[in-house]
Amino acid sequence: MPTRKQLEEADRLINQFDWAKYDAMTDEEIQAHWSFDPDMAWPSEEELAEFDLVAWVFGGMEFGETNAASRVIYGLVGLAGVYCIASFLAGRRTERRPVTAGAR
């Protein structure tokens, strides 16, 4: 647990940071600014898309491999997706649209 002094110092540093300058930077400038390790390699978009968080959490499996625990997680994610789609479609059915003059 951080001490009060550490929290105050962190708060001071956050408030002191120039966020507008950071927002104006391009991705390349940010990478150049934060790459203090010259050997650090940034993941490509393809590598990020192939990263399987569930497989990594449940035992460092390769992309696409499953076990019982990961199947449960994938099933819950699938059910959540079905629920979200059903909620979206139900909301669209009950939405009232104003009737314009001359339209039926």
Notable characteristics:
104 residues, mainly alpha
Decide which structural class fits the backbone. Answer: mainly alpha
Uncertain regions: pLDDT < 50 for 5+ in a row? none
How many domain regions? Answer: 1
Gap from first CA to last CA: 65 Å
Q: Average pLDDT, to the nearest integer?
A: 79
Percent strand equals under 5%
The number of strands is: 0
The SSE order reads: HHHHHH
Number of helices: 6
- State the helicity in percent bands: 55-70%
Rg, alpha carbons: 24 Å
| Overall geometry | extended
Oligomer: single chain
Q: Summarize the biggest pleated sheet.
A: none
What does this structure look like?
- With 104 residues, the protein is mostly helical.
- Helix content is 61%, strand content 0%.
- The chain contains 6 helices and no strands.
- It has helices at 4-16, 19-23, 27-34, 45-49, 53-57, 68-94.
- It starts with a helix and ends in a 10-residue tail after the last helix.
- 0% of the residues are buried.
Tell me the layout of helices and strands.
Blueprint (H helix, E strand, L loop, with lengths): L3 H13 L2 H5 L3 H8 L10 H5 L3 H5 L10 H27 L10
Can you summarize this structure?
The protein is mainly α and 104 residues long. The chain has helices spanning 4-16, 19-23, 27-34, 45-49, 53-57, 68-94.
